[in-house]
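Need tokens for this chain, all 171 residues.
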Amino acid sequence: MKKEKIAHRHHTRSLRHANGFTLVEVMIAMVVLLIGMLGVLSMQYYAITGNASSREMRTATNLSAEIIEQLKSTPYANLALAPAPPPTETSIAGGVNFTRASWVVSDCVAMNFNADNNTCAGLVASCSEDPDATMIVPVSAVRVRTCWTDKDNLPHSVTLDSIRWNENETL
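Here are the structure tokens for all 171 residues:
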């Protein structure tokens, strides 16, 4: 009988510990889980924001490259016919307005602007000093800039520079 009582007491004690978790243990586990979930949510937010910024940059680069490619296929003699203020185009992609502007300066290797504040308007292009000013270079400098404003109302731009050699000239 004594052995039975001891076994029963031991069995009761082990059942008491196996009943489950206390309320404090559950609350601590929930706080730890919540902190982990907040970390994952903030990581998702930054990933989505980074993807949107990357998409805008890629779109602007493609729009600028498209103009560069059009100017590459334009005959050299027609490049000089570009109007003095740069032609601008506006296009919408992914809910964002992109403005493109292009400048062409004949007989120029490198282009300068009166003020370069990463905008697409109000800029006047000129040629920088030619290293050998005694010789006219049969090259035109080309610059294309695509500007946009992001969802936080911050201005951005992508600028591509190129040169176009006069294929009919020989030195």
